[in-house]
Design brief:
The chain is about 25% helix and about 15% strand. With about 140 residues, the chain is an alpha+beta fold. Strand 5 and strand 6 form a beta hairpin.
Length: about 140
């Protein structure tokens, strides 16, 4: 089974998503996209697979989003892609690719929808928030 996660180890959501994938019994290919950004072609492919626009994938918090005036509607999709390639921190994360689909795993437990084996048993996020209870069922918030 081939699973890829575009990961930022400094991001709690990304770390939690990676932990969920591993608890499912899979060892994904981990792409630290800040060190090894995707090519333009790969980024376009990921965005299309998620049925998103480049603007929907933009990350605002902790990025140069405001300084670059990226809220301005004057920027085209191509412009947004150029900004993401120049500043990979603008790419929201984690993006997970499995044979069952591609998604932006926010919240991290969204990844369960595309895992080959989503029955991972009890699971709590780093902050203690329970995602899967002792009964093996997702905790709905």
């Amino acid at each position: 089974m081939s699973i890829t996660i575009y990961h930022n180890p400094s991001c709690g959501t990304s770390r939690n998503t990676l932990a969920i994938i591993r608890q499912s019994g899979e060892e994904p290919e981990v792409v630290e996209y800040l060190k090894t950004p995707p090519s333009r072609e790969k980024l376009v492919e990921l965005i299309a697979a998620m049925a998103m626009t480049p603007r929907q994938l933009l990350r605002e918090k902790g990025t140069p989003y405001a300084e670059l005036d990226l809220a301005n509607p004057k920027w085209s999709d191509d412009d947004i892609l150029d900004f993401m390639l120049a500043h990979p921190i603008l790419i929201n994360r984690p993006i997970v690719v499995t044979p069952k689909g591609t998604l932006l795993a926010r919240p991290s437990e969204a990844v369960l929808d595309i895992l080959p084996n989503p029955d991972i048993g009890p699971f709590a996020k780093e902050d203690g928030e329970v995602v899967i209870g002792a009964d093996g069922k997702r905790v709905v918030r």
